[in-house]
Structures are given as C-alpha cells and as structure tokens.
Amino acid sequence: MEFPSARLGGGRETGAQLVLVRVDVHFCGVNFADILVCRGQYQEKPQLPFTPGMEFSGTVLETGAAVSTMKEGDRVIGVSGFNGMAEECIIDQKTLWQIPERVPLREAATLPVSYVTAILALEHRARTRPGETVLVTAAAGATGLAVIDVATNVLQAKVIAAAGSEEKCRLAMQRGAQSIVNYSQGSLKEAVRKLVGSGGVNVVIDTVGGDVFLEALRSLAWEGRIVVVGFAGGTIASMPANLLLLKNVSAMGLYWGRYKEQDFPVFSRILSSALQYCQQRRIQPHIGAVFKLEEVNDAFLHVRRRKSTGKVLISLK
Where is the secretion signal located (predicted)? Predict the structure, then answer.
C-alpha cells in the first residue's frame, strides 16, 4: 500500500483513505521472507522502492473518517505486506487487530507470521488431534518453536523436535518438545524410528525442504499428513508419488500470505485465536533477539546465517 500522505488529515480523504489507520510502530518481526523479498527471491516481488516488514505491533495515532474498529491510542498488531519496518505505518483497518490488555506489544509482534503459520499448519491443514505425534523440522526457529508451543499446549499433541545442532535441540526441549533429533548427526528417518518405532509419526510440519523433507515424509505413519511450510535449507525436493500411496499419506502446502488474500475470514479467525491463546498464557512466544532499526542489516544477517532461535524483532522505540 502506498502512503497517501504524511498524515491522514493532510488533505481531503479519498474513499480508500477513509478506512486507513496511522500506527506508531513499536516492534516489527524479522522473517526469512523479508530477506528473500529484498534479494528478489520471494514469490511476491513488490515494486521498488519498498519497505520490508510483514508484521508489526504499535499504537494507533490517527484514523480515517470511516474507521469503526479502533480509535486513537489503541494497541494493535498489523499484517502489512511489506512496509512494517518504519517508525509509522499507514494501513487498512481490516488488517489490524486489537491487542488484549495483558499481552505486551513486544510479544504481540511475534504472532502474525509464526503463530498463524503454526496454527494454520497444525489445525487447519493437518487437522492434528490430541495425543497424535508431530514431527517439526527447524524446530528452534520462530515457526518451529511456535509449532511446538501450539501442538503441546493448545492441541495436547506429542512433539518430536528436529534441528541441526545440540544447542537448538536443547532449546526445543526446554520449550515443550517431548523428544529431540539432531539431523546433522545422521538419518532423521532412523532417529525417528528409534523414538516411535516402525509405526511413524502422525503429522510433519517441514520448513527445511530437500533431503530433510524426504526423510520426514518416510517417517509418516499410516494416513499421516505432511505440511510443506518452506524451504529454508535452500533445496526444493522432488517427491516420489509412491511414498504417498504406500501408507495412504497426504502431502499439502501452506503459503501463509495467500490465506490473507484468498480466505481472509480463516486468516483473521486464526490470528484472533493466537491473540486469545497469548492472553490466556496457553502459548508463550520465545523472542531470541531484538535489534534497533538502524541495525536492520545485522538482524537480517543474524537470521540468514542461521544464528537465530525463536523470533527476531526490530525495535522502533
């Protein structure tokens, strides 16, 4: 969305401007997608120049004349497409949600991408049931820890966390996983087999791709479900279709951004659920690092070099 003016009241409002809200941004999430879009490697390619930043939290400074869902001073989170890493953001009221009183702005900024992805993957796509076993890859990342949090504390599932270092595995265990696998030390499939036997796992949430995806696919139980969330490892695997047939398993994708465009009621309901879970303390987001706006390149490098665990935020205040 282009900024129509420095302030909403800078002139006569058009129809589109009537529903805009000007927000004082406090925190903005750093996502791998922000790095990809800046490098021209993301599915969506905004016209240059653009400001990265897909999610943010802040307070309302000003509202258009037709805004009915919030007022000046309200605390909000927003899903901005690509313009959130700025001191102020002008955005349609439809893509703002009020933050419950007991949820801090810093914590709220972690929810729109990582936790909506986790809930969409586990609930909406995989239909995870209580007592089922969930395998999550890249388990110490922002999405991985969100999957552990939601699966364990909301859905009452059992989680096997797979990550690429002992340090990351320990963090995943501390955050609620029942078992851990370091896939840098050998076969993921064999490690999972040792944990659950030949029966396999019911659900896989994969953000890595490549060989990790294929081994996770081979770890599924009868009528298991694998959800493809991303390809952080840099390789998109080709999947032998016979692997789906042999155990009647399902492979499905999850593209977070398309839900906002194609099925907004589902997107909005799940983000509202994440806010409610956070207010109830059923989920507790893990923030791994906070950078200042002038340190944004350091923040990107921190994520790109796989040094980050949990959510990385930019602080605008």
Answer: none
